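User: quick one, sequence for these tokens?
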């Protein structure tokens, strides 16, 4: 099982690092590339075509115009998860809208602005449909989250 992660630019590295850390935690193989949908469209087309042979899920990470995930979705039949990235001008709202507003027939699952960890978890959930060990790791993760909440207490000190 493999996930292909594509950043629109190296400035998206911080979000990509969150994705990679979570995939490593689950033991999922990955590949990371920096390919702009606007500045290197032929390179992106070639990469997606080749990566389809080994990757079951794509994650696109981009800010501003954020067309990357939609372009990836137009090039593949594999699931695509978009991660919008916060830029200075509109705090990521521009990227969020560019990522989530796809035309009919070209779906992109979109997570929160900067939501690299959730993108990785969603990718693992997709892979877990066909992998019992991943499903068990997800169950354990959810159990650990619940336990952490149960063990959290609040005391008013006013």
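Assistant:
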């Amino acid at each position: 099982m493999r996930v292909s992660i594509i950043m629109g630019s190296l400035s998206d590295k911080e979000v990509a690092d969150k994705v990679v850390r979570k995939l490593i935690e689950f033991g999922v193989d990955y590949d990371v590339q920096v390919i702009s949908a606007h500045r290197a469209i032929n390179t992106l087309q070639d990469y997606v075509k080749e990566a389809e042979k080994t990757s079951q899920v794509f994650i696109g990470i981009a800010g501003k115009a954020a067309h990357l995930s939609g372009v990836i979705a137009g090039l593949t039949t594999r699931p695509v998860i978009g991660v919008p990235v916060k830029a200075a001008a509109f705090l990521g709202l521009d990227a969020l809208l560019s990522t989530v507003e796809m035309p009919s027939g070209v779906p992109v699952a979109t997570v929160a602005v900067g939501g690299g960890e959730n993108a990785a978890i969603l990718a693992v959930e997709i892979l877990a449909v066909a992998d019992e060990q991943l499903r068990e790791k997800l169950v354990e993760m959810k159990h650990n989250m619940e336990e952490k909440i149960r063990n959290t207490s609040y005391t008013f000190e006013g």
